[in-house]
Amino acid sequence: MYRGFPLDLFMAQCYANADDLGKGRQMPVHYGSKDLNFVTISSPLATQIPQAAGAAYAVKRENINRAVICYFGEGAASEGDAHAGFNFSATLECPLIFFCRNNGYAISTPTNEQYRGDGIAARGPGYGMLSIRVDGNDVFAVYNATKEARRRAVAENQPFLIEAMTYRIGHHSTSDDSSAYRSVDEVNYWDKQDHPISRLRHYMTARGWWSEDDERSWRKQSRKTVMEAFEKAERRLKPNPELLFTDVYKEMTPQLDKQRESLWRHVQQYKEHYPLDLYEK
Amino acid sequence: ITIMAAAARFFVRGAHPKLSFSGVCASAQRSLGAGLLKLSPSCASRTKTHKRHAAHFTFQPDPVPTQYGPTQKMNLFQSVTSALDNTLASDPTAVIFGEDVAFGGVFRCTVGLRDKYGKDRVFNTPLCEQGIVGFGIGVAVAGATAIAEIQFADYIYPAFDQIVNEAAKYRYRSGNMFDCGNLTIRAPWGCVGHGSLYHSQSPEAFFAHCPGLKIVIPRGPVQAKGLLLSCISDKNPCIFFEPKILYRAAVEQVPVDAYTIPLSQAEVLQEGSDVTLVAWGTQIHVMKEVANMAQEKLGVSCEVIDLQTILPWDIDTVCKSVAKTGRLLISHEAPVTGGFAAEISSTVQEECFLNLEAPISRVCGYDTPFPHIFEPFYIPDKWKCLEAIKKMINY
């Protein structure tokens, strides 16, 4: 959001409606934006890590003072792709920031069942990679670490690993009830004592930059904005079903075209059984 | 700054996409995989868009089995748990492992087993599929029984090398000195209504190209338990794909004690004289409905065959049926090109050429990734199958 991706496009993606840049093909929260250099998210874990190394290598060769940043969690760091990505980026001297959000849980799996070393940051030296661990609940610490990582990654053509320590207060997803594997007290502690948003709020309030009134009206306004976007996206039609067949290849293949035609013939013949009215024509 | 986005496997272990952003219905969800499975009746009336989540099939339970002792009402995930429970009780070497299995698994297939049998027998692994399968091969080679869970069949590919180059070839390459026949890999499989690219795949054909593996897919709770127990006791590495849409939707009376259903044996579920319908997993229930529709609307008599084991498959049962009916329709959700229907079609054409009254018909997924919002158009539903039958009859 801070890069300028509009709320309406977030909602369009979540609703897979006709405005979704991803054309309704992926599940919610798989955003992407060409304009904002944000490669579309895919569900498989850690696959982006070696890809980030490749992208950073290409960026380096363009010599345009750019870096790549790659986000993942401490769970994904267990995948084989993570090892490959770390090792490639170090040996091939890629201007790349690995940003690992260590929030304590990969769904139900706590970090002590994920690794027994000193977290993810400690792996950096093993790959010959700069690495730093920051308090992920401290906005300024994260900001400064990232800024320095970017400076060094670009100036020195090398990867930089940041491990931001935090806690997953929410459930893994709305389908998850995390009380099945962790105590409510544990969650409450982090929620009440060490929440990055409340910490920033307290800091700003203490300096007179923010007040209860600001907070209240900001929350009210935000809720309204989100609900409006939500309802708008919900009402919007789904993308044209033709888009089922495009972009498999750059060009439509004869075989796919045949399949597309056969679907249309079929749907015309049996139209009462297909939800055509929900889709753009 | 170029940004490589993190792969948010936000739902990967079972978020309900509708709920993940509606919030309105979130309280209805109680467990991870559960969210993927429920059609959320509490949400059903909320918008017309929910119409697309109506299941494309009606589960048709098997008759209550009488030959295996007392039965109990179980859904498919409970019948899997029951099979695992029987195994852990009878085989002290057996271990069960994978991502999030300790607390019961995102689809609840291992609920209670850790408490009952100990944390050295039912445990979480780090998040790494190639590790899970490689570890499982090692357990099996050392003589113990390994039951590995891959959280979704869509995520099995990092383990492809371990499965295809290692598990499948262990016995052959060692001159039968070593094998990993004690390995069974379980994975949720198939479409679920809103799973999109990475929670819907049916990757059996990839593995069917690999001699040395057995691949099994059940159509309901009774088969799931009997076939899973067969896979576990079979002395070859087996992949057991579980139709995730059936985990809760499919309920049957399932025998409580251990029993096995033979591998590599297809089951004729309904006899017929005009067309043979071959499928497996969820698609069986589509086929059963299609058989009824064909009878009612077209007066066509269909023989329905559940292949059950994809590799090595039961050629005799299928060919015997086609020799009788002269027509064959094969249907699966996976893309049509290179799908297992192609293999069946080719074999039947060789074996039954002179019996065929019409070209063999395949009603399958299109040659695209599995699309989220277009799923109602993508799946090989009953109307497409019925139309294919019409064409074969009128050929």
Topology:
The complex is a heterodimer of chains A (281) and B (395).
Chain A lengths: L6 H9 L32 H15 L5 E6 L6 H12 L4 E7 L2 E2 L2 E2 L13 H4 L2 E6 L3 H18 L2 E7 L18 H10 L2 H11 L5 H24 L18 H16 L12
Parallel strand pairs in A: 1-2, 2-6, 5-6
Antiparallel strand pairs in A: 3-4
Helix pairs in contact in A: 1-8, 2-3
Chain B lengths: L1 E3 L12 H6 L9 H6 L33 E5 H15 L4 E4 L14 H5 L4 E3 L4 H13 L4 E4 L10 H7 L3 H4 L9 E7 L14 H5 L5 E3 L4 H13 L4 E6 L2 H4 L1 E5 L11 E4 L4 E5 L3 H16 L3 E5 L2 E3 L3 H11 L2 E8 L4 H13 L8 E5 L9 H4 L3 H12 L2
Parallel strand pairs in B: 3-4, 3-5, 5-6, 6-8, 7-8, 11-12, 11-14, 14-15
Antiparallel strand pairs in B: 2-9, 7-13, 10-12
Helix pairs in contact in B: 3-9, 5-6, 11-15, 12-13
Subcellular location (chain B): Mitochondrion matrix
EC number (chain B): 1.2.4.4
Protein name (chain B): 2-oxoisovalerate dehydrogenase subunit beta, mitochondrial
The percent of residues in helical segments of chain B reads 25-40%
Give, in order, the helices and strands of chain B: EHHEHEHEHEHHEHEHEHEEEHEEHEHEHH
| CATH architecture term of the largest domain in chain B | 3-Layer(aba) Sandwich
Strand order of the largest sheet of chain B: 4-3-5-6-8-7-13
Assembly level: heterodimer
Mean pLDDT across residues of chain A: 96
User: What percentage of amino acids of chain A are in beta strands?
Assistant: 5-15%
Main sheet attributes: strand count, strand direction, barrel closure of chain B: 7 strands, mixed
- The separation of the N and C termini of chain B measures 60 Å
User: Can you tell me the CATH topology of the largest domain in chain A?
Assistant: Rossmann fold
Task: Report the CATH C-level class of the largest domain in chain A.
Answer: Alpha Beta
What is Rg of chain B?
A: 21 Å
**How many domains make up the coordinates of chain A?**
2
Protein name (chain A): 2-oxoisovalerate dehydrogenase subunit alpha
GO molecular function (chain A): branched-chain 2-oxo acid dehydrogenase activity; metal ion binding
EC number (chain A): 1.2.4.4
Enzyme class (chain A): oxidoreductase
